[in-house]
Each structure stands twice: as C-alpha cells, then as structure tokens.
Amino acid sequence: MTVSRFRRILLKLSGEVLMGQGQFGIDPATCERVALEVKEAKDSGLEICMVVGGGNIFRGLAGAAQGFDRASADYMGMLATVMNALAMQNALEKVGVDTRVQSAIPMASVCEPYIRRRAERHMEKGRVVIFAAGTGLPFFTTDTTAALRAAEMDCDALFKGTSVDGVYDADPKKVPTAKRYDTLSYDRVLADNLKVMDASAVALCRDNNIPIVVFNIRGEGNLTAVLRGEGTSTIVQTEQQYV
C-alpha cells in the first residue's frame, strides 16, 4: 500500500494524541509535529480532510459515567473537538497549509458550518478541511463521524492515528504476547469485537468500501511511512482485497 494508491484520505486523530507527553489539554509542539507530517502528505499530492476527537479535554461517555446526562455530556465532548480542530488549524496554517474548520454545530464567529459541497470545493482547491463537533448529534462517536465524513467526501481510505501501531487480539499494553494483525476484514473486526472503531463506524466503512488503516501517530514520521507502505499498521478491508 503506497500513497499513489490514494487520491483523497480522511485522517482521524484521537484527542489524546494532542496531549503529547502531558495528561490533559493540548501540546503545541505535538500539534506542530502532526501538522508537518500532514503537510508532507499533502505535498505528495494527496487531498486530506481530518476529524479530531476530544478525549484530551472531555469525553462524553466518561462524563456520562460520572453522572452527567448522556446527551449533555456528548454535546460537551463535541465542543472539545472544536477546540482541538482550531488548534490543528492554527498549527497547519503556521507551516503554510491552507485549512478550514467546519463544525456540525453552527458557530459562525469561530468556524464555518458543515456544508458538504463547500467542503469538497475547499479540498479541490488544495485546502485541508477539519470536521469538528462530531455529527452534531449526541450518541455518536467521532469514529462514526470520521466514517461518515469519509463516505461523504468520497475518500479512498480512512487513516486512524492512535497510540498503538495497529489492531491486536488483546490489549498490547496489558498483554505482552498480544498478536498484531497486518490485515483484517470488516466482518472479522465486527464478529470478534476487536475495538478498531465502534461497530457503526466499521459497518459504514464496509458498506462504502473504505479501507481503515490503523497506525501509531505518536511516533515521529509514522504517518509518512504508512502512506509510503513502509510503516507498521493494520489495514481493515474486504477479504477480496487481500486474499
């Protein structure tokens, strides 16, 4: 798998990635590093859009577990993703990448509303578009948002940047002997509940034939390496694509 295989990708970043080595919040140095890797990928000819989670600031499910009303907690999490999107926009524009933030929750003083055709036009003009505020509705994760936006933008793949270098049969942080998969089918992920993304996101990618590439974004240069087909990752796709 190399960058030449793709014309347009969606990059999904977990909010925790933006913490860097911290325990909370946004680390500007980490945002800059990620921005430089996105710039390198864009300069190679890719059209790129992004979705960033909000777990470094507030996670809806965690808030609900602590007593918040679930819908209210999810809206709070959506607002956290807007903060992260603005941070990434700032980092990208500092390294010379034209960027637009579009929010599913209208906030005209801060960013554009999400309009699919406008987003497509931005990408055609070479801009990076960051989709914020999830789907605008509670009870949906940013994983589902990423799959939905990838389908709407006609992306060739969804790259999920996390803290691990792929999908394992157990938590590698807890089980040293956990096995990493190079390739998996969507149905295997769903049947074995492998926690790549939530089930609705995986099913949406399956139904639209969008490969999911899971890799460790915390390592410097990993995004570039994975795009070149040199890095370590797990690819989730139809069985016919790898058998």
Please outline the helices and strands.
Elements: E1 8-13, H1 28-43, E2 47-52, H2 60-65, H3 70-94, E3 99-103, E4 112-113, H4 116-124, E5 128-132, H5 142-152, E6 157-162, E7 167-168, E8 180-181, E9 183-185, H6 186-192, H7 199-207, E10 212-216, H8 222-227, E11 233-237, H9 239-242
Parallel strand pairs: 1-2, 1-6, 2-5, 3-4, 3-5, 6-10, 9-11
Antiparallel strand pairs: 7-8, 10-11
Helix pairs in contact: 1-3, 5-7, 6-7
Structure description:
It is a single chain. With 243 residues, this protein is α/β, with parallel strands linked by helices. It has nine helices and eleven strands. The strands form two sheets. The chain has a nine-stranded mixed sheet with strand order 4-3-5-2-1-6-10-11-9, with helices on both faces. A two-stranded antiparallel ribbon has the order 7-8. It is globular. The two termini are 14 Å apart. The mean pLDDT is 91.
